[in-house]
Amino acid sequence: MERAKIWLAVKFVWPLNGKMAEAIRGFQATEADGVWHLHRTLHRLDDPRQRAILFTHGLEEEAHAEEFTLAYAHYGQRPLAPANFERRELYPADEPTWKTFAFVNVGEDDATQRFRLLRDTIDDGLLKESLGRVVADEEGHVGLTHSLLVRMGATDAEIRTELRRVRVQRLWESWLRSGRRVIDRLATVILSVVYFVIGAVLHRTARARLSRTFVDYDNNRIKKLVE
Amino acid sequence: MNVLGVSYGYHDASASLIVDGRVVAASAEERFTRQKHDSNFPTFAIDYCLQQGGALRVGDIDQVVFHEDPHAKFARVLTTALAPFPRSRLEFVNSTKSWMGKKLWALNTVSSRLDIAADRISYLSHHFSHAVQAFMGSGFDESAILIVDAVGDWASTALFRGRWQDGQPVIERIFEVPFPNSLGLVYSAFTAFLGFNPNDSECSTMALAAFGRPVYVDAVRAIVAELDDGTYRVDQGYFNFANFYKGVVTSRFTQVFGEPRSFAQKLPFRSFGAPGDATSDVQRFADAAFAVQTVIEERLLALARRLHREHPSENLCFAGGVSLNCVANRRLLAEGPFKNIHIPPDPGDGGTAVGTALYYDALHERVDPRAASYDPYLGAQYDERDDIRMFEHVKPEHVSRYLKRGLAPLPGMQFRQATFANVDDLVAEVAGRLLRGNIVGWFQGRAEIGPRALGNRSILIRPDDLHLALRLSRDVKDRALFRPYAFSVAEEDALEVLDVAPEHVRFCRWMQFAQPVRSTHWDKVAAALHVDHTTRPQVCSAAENPRFHRLLTAFGDRFGLAALLNTSFNPSGYPIVSTPVEALTMFARTGMDALALGNTLVWKDAN
After folding, report:
1. A39: closest chain B residue by CA
2. pLDDT tens digit string along B511-543?
3. Are B70 and B222 in contact (CB under 8 A)?
C-alpha cells in the first residue's frame, strides 16, 4: 500500500510544479522536528551518558535536515521558507520519559520505511544520494531508540503496549488528516460558490474601499473582549 | 498588577510579562520551537514568562493583552480578496478558510488555551500596538511616533503623538495611510523579486543595495509617489498585493526591472575582500535593490517631516518592520527633523507583546515614564552545568561523521573544557583566543529579544581578519558574501572608530543604525565593514551588558581597539540559539573553535 502511494506520488504528483520540492521541504521539517523532540527529551534525563546519546542522535538528525535543505536548494524554485508547525510535547511532564522513546522509535521506523521506498522509486540524482545516507542512519536509530526504551527500565510488556498505542494514535492522526483534506476540498467548493455570489455584489464596494488615501475611522484604543 | 502580553497569528509570535510596571520577561516563540518566525500560539513563551515571574499561574494574571483587532483585520482581508473579482477566487477561498478556521477567533483562542475568563482579555489595533510599543519604553515625556510596516488591520503607515499625563500614557492618532499603499509591502515585493524570502530576508535586499547604481531610482520614485502632504501612493499596477497568488509583481513591473532572479542564481558581490565579477544581468538586481532602498529612505524622511510639522517635538519613536532598516534609520537620524530617535529592541510584531502589556499596566497604575524603559535582555536563561557534564561524554569521532556539509573533520579532534572561577579569567582566555584567530561562541545569561545578538547569544571573531570572516561565512554561518557583518564596540572607544556625532552614539546600542567608520580604522575593522565603509554597530556600555563589555575591553587591551565582529548565534535558516544544548550542537557541527557557556569554555583540540 505504502509502496503504491509513493510510486503514484513520485510518478504523477512530483512532476507537477513545485510538488517535489514541497515534499523535500516536508522531509526537512520532519528531521528538524526530530531534533527538537530529542532536545526536549534530553532535558528530562539525569544521566549525562544517556543525555550524550540523545545529543549525538540529535546531531545526526540535524545533519539529515541539512541534507534535505541542500536537496531543496537543488530542486526548489524559491528559497526554503521556515516550517511553521505548532510544536507540542509528546507526553505530559508527569508521564515516564521512556514513553517518548516509544514515540520516537515508531516515528523513526515509519520514516525509514518511507525513505527506503522513496529511494528505491526515484531516479538517480542528488535526492537519491541524500536518501541513501539518511536511510543508513535511520536504520541504526530504530535499534538505538528501542535499546533506550529497554535501558530506561520499561518492561517488554510495557514497551509492546506503548508501541501499539503510538501506532494506533498515528493511524488515527493520519485518518484525521485525510478527513481534514476532504473537508478542505468541500470548503473550497462551497466558498467558491460564496465568492461568486457575494463577489458579484460587493466587489465595487471593496474596490472603492481599497482606493482610499486615508483610514477614515479611528480604531486606536484599547478594547475588551467582553465588556 | 500582572499583565501578560501576547502576539501571534502572522509571524514572530511572542509573549511578555509585566509585573507592577516592570518588564520581567519577554520572548519570541521561535526561541523555544526552533522555527524561525514561528507564528503559532506562543505556548512555550507564555510558560517561560510565567516561570520568570516567580512560577506564576494563569490565575495570577490580571489581564492578557493581545496585539491585534482580528475583526478589523478580517474585514480588510475580505475586502482585499473581493476587490479583484472575478480573478481572485483562490485568494478569497484560501484566506477565508484560514480566517474562519483559526485567525478570526484568536481572542477566543487566547481565552481557551490559557483557560482565562474573556473579561480579562483586552486588545488593540495592530498599528496602535506598535505605537504603544514604540512609546512606552522610550523614556520620553512626549514624542512623535512613526509606525511603518507591511500591513496591520487597515493601516500600513501610521503617525501618532504621545505624552504622559498624570502618570498615564496618552497616544493620539494623527494620520494613517491605508493598505494597499504600503512601504513595507513594496520592500518585501522587491525582496521576493530579488530571489529572497519576503518577511525574512529584507536585510539581504538592504545589503545588496550597497552594490547598486542609480539606474532605476526614478522608476521606483514614480511607482511609490510622494504626495504633497508627505505621505505616498503606491501604483498598484506593478504589484499583486491584493491577489498575490498571481505572483507578487506584475508584468508591468518586469517590463521595467526584467525577470525576477532565481534564488539559485549566484550573486558575485562581496562586502569585503576582492570584488566579484558582476555581469549586467546580475548588476540589475543590485540596481533594483538600490532603487527601492533609496526611495524607501526618501519616503521615510518625508513622513518624518510631515510628522514633525504636526507635532514639532525633538523626539521620535519609530517601530514596525520597516524600522529594522538600519540604513534608512541612519538617514532619519542624520537628515530628519528629530534630535532623538528611539527604536525599541524588538520593533517588529514580536515586540508588540511588550508594549501592549506595558500600556495596559500604565493605564491602570500611575507609572514613571522612565521606569517603563527596558533593555533587550529579557529572554530565557539556563543553567548550563548539566549540559556541560553531558558534553564530556560526547565522542568527537561520532560528531565528526555529522559535521556541517563540506567541513573536513579535524584530525584527532578532542573536546576540551575549563571552568573559570571568576569572569576576568574567562574573558582573558576568550580574548586571547579571539586574538589568535579563533571563532568563538559567546553564550551568556538571558537571551536578547529581537533579531539582533547583542553579546549574550553571539558568535565573535577579531574584526580585522578577512580570511577568518570568510571562514565564518563558509564553515559556520552559511552566509552570502554580499551580506556584511557588524561589530560591537565598548562605548569608550566608539567615537574613535565611528564617524558619528557624539550625541548620536547612545542610539547605537542595539545595532539599529548603520554608521560610517572613520577611514583611519578601516583596516582595523575590515571584516565588519560593508562595501560603503559603514557598519551596524552595537555600542556596548558596562551598565547595559557588563560581562560583554569586559570581554570587549579585555580584547581591546591587546588589540588596540575594544571592538569585536559580532554575528548572531544561529545556523542558517534557524532562530538564534536559546538553550546550551542548541549552542553545543552548533559548536560541534560547524567550524566554531570555542564556545563560552557561562563561566565554562569548551574548545576543539586537534593533533
Report:
1. B581
2. 999 999 999 999 999 999 999 999 999 999 999
3. no
